[in-house]
TrEMBL record:
Recorded GO MF terms: zinc ion binding
Gene3D superfamilies per UniProt: 1.10.220.160, 6.10.140.2220, SET domain
Lineage, highest ranks first: Eukaryota, Fungi, Dikarya, Basidiomycota, Agaricomycotina
The entry's keywords: Metal-binding, Zinc, Zinc-finger
Organism from which the protein derives: Hypholoma sublateritium (strain FD-334 SS-4)
SET domain: residues covered: 36-248
The name this protein goes by in its record: MYND-type domain-containing protein
Superkingdom in the source lineage: Eukaryota
Record's signal peptide: none
Keyword DNA-binding attached: no
Domain (MYND-type) ranges: 54-96
PROSITE patterns: SET (PS50280), ZF_MYND_1 (PS01360), ZF_MYND_2 (PS50865)
Length: 448
């Protein structure tokens, strides 16, 4: 049984024919509304972030020498005594002594990287449960009991070894928890870059997956506070509508079905998944450069991205209306190739190539991502930055004026999309970059 605040205010859980329950909205929500704000139950930093940011609140200090290292194990870093004490009380006091010997043990060393992360997260959860007033006894209505009530994933593999914790957990508990890990483990990101993983049982219990989601999760780091996840409406959501999150990147058009089946045990029934299943294996992209160019032009025209004209708003073409001649653009290698060409060309100053591949990439994003998906806004910002680089290297005043207008238009679009998602993670980030570039464009205009 849950407390009166469960599910939170504007959300309700109702039965679903395939997924046990689904979360529906009790109200009409506007795009950008916050639907849920919840603190993490357990988190783990990626190895690459260890010693760069606080292990408790994930905040990034201005100077890493300001981080305080645990004097016991020397393997956890904190903003200050407050963060250190919070994590000590939550789980660290149970693993501080055993952590380093465990990390060098052959059984831990033999694990693949993703299982190493699971092993540490599982160790944190077990240590946390060992510190309950009655160790390992789940209290009804507590996040720990919600965690155990989650649907177990289809992966029946053995739980990885965990860092020794006393008192020893009861037999079967680690395995039972691990069965709920694969499909309830969130990648925590800052400006969309993954920096760690976290368990948020309330979010897991509430939201089903859609490859065309109407909401997305973002993360808030506040010095001294546990990491918070906020679920944001990407578009207007009507009262009674199901609220869904993406469990994976919707752009994984060729592999997402397999991943969902393998890791979560279901087939997505969203319109884009039904469409992809109906059209079957995708045709190859042409090997000849001219043919590729034609495909790119056809895609731009179909989606309605015409870089020679003012792009006032972002078109929203349903994937299901794609003509068969363009099915080949849905190959993951096509998006990967475009993305590589765009970043290489903008980096190396081959601006014509960058802008052409960037517009094609934008068309593809608009086709495969739902409305206001942050990746679309990030790409519009990258386009604006690329055009600005052309402006500052150009000596032709007329061309410069046209380009500045074009950059401004991309910035407007970037802001429109990213304002819906709002800021996440570390200070700075895309919204701040938009403000800076906007300032540069304004002052360039006054100089004209
Ligand atoms: C994180 S839980 C979501 C909450 C779940 N509906 C519940 O009642 O606890 C994930 C599990 O829900 C089910 N699920 C989520 N999205 C689904 C979907 N689109 N279609 C079918 N089942 C889904 C799968 O069993 C999946 O492993």
């Amino acid at each position: 049984m849950q407390t009166a605040t469960w599910p939170p205010g504007g959300l309700a859980l109702v039965p679903h024919n395939l997924a046990r329950d689904k979360c529906v909205s009790r109200n009409d929500y506007k795009a950008g509304s916050q639907l849920l704000s919840i603190t993490s139950y357990a988190t783990t930093l990626l190895d690459s972030e260890k010693g760069r940011r606080c292990d408790f609140c994930f905040s990034l200090p201005r100077d890493t020498t300001h981080l305080k290292r645990c004097s016991g194990c020397g393997s956890y870093w904190y903003c200050d005594e407050h963060c250190q004490s919070a994590q000590w009380q939550t789980h660290h006091k149970r693993v501080c002594r055993t952590y380093n010997p465990f990390l060098v043990s052959p059984e831990y060393q033999a694990l693949p990287d993703y299982k190493k992360l699971d092993s540490i997260m599982l160790s944190h959860v077990i240590a946390q449960l060992s510190l309950l007033p009655d160790p390992y006894a789940f209290q009804e209505s507590a996040p720990s009991s919600l965690l155990m009530s989650l649907i177990a994933g289809p992966d029946k593999s053995l739980a990885p070894p965990i860092c020794p914790v006393k008192p020893i957990p009861p037999p079967g508990l680690v395995q039972k928890l691990y069965a709920r890990f694969g499909n309830n483990n969130f990648a925590i990101h800052s400006h969309l870059n993954t920096i760690g993983h976290g368990i948020f049982p309330q979010t897991s219990r509430l939201f089903n997956h859609s490859c065309l989601p109407n909401s997305a999760a973002k993360y808030i780091f506040e010095p001294g506070a546990a990491i918070r996840m906020e679920v944001v409406a990407l578009r207007d959501i009507a009262k009674g509508e199901e609220v869904c999150l993406p469990y994976l990147d919707p752009a994984l058009l060729e592999t997402r079905e397999q991943i969902l089946e393998f890791s979560y045990g279901f087939q997505c029934q969203c319109p884009t998944s039904l469409f992809l299943r109906r059209i079957g294996p995708l045709t190859d992209t042409p090997a000849v450069e001219n043919e590729m160019l034609k495909i790119s032009e056809e895609l731009l025209e179909f989606v309605g991205v015409d870089s020679t004209k003012a792009l006032i708003s972002l078109p929203n073409k349903p994937l299901e209306s794609l003509p068969p001649s363009l099915y080949c653009v849905l190959r993951e290698s096509y998006m990967g190739g475009l993305s590589e060409t765009f970043s290489k060309a903008s980096h190396e100053g081959q601006y014509d190539i960058a802008l052409q591949s960037g517009d094609t990439l934008l068309s593809l994003y608009l086709l495969v991502y739902p409305l206001n998906y942050p990746q679309i806004g990030m790409h519009c910002l990258e386009m604006a930055k690329t055009i600005w680089n052309v402006v500052i290297t150009s000596t032709d005043q007329n061309k410069g004026r046209v380009l500045k207008d074009q950059a401004r238009r991309y910035l407007v679009l970037a802001r429109r999309v990213l304002d819906v998602f709002g800021p996440e993670g570390d200070e700075g980030g895309p919204l701040q970059e938009i403000a800076i570039l906007d300032g540069l464009l304004q002052s360039a205009k006054t100089r004209e």
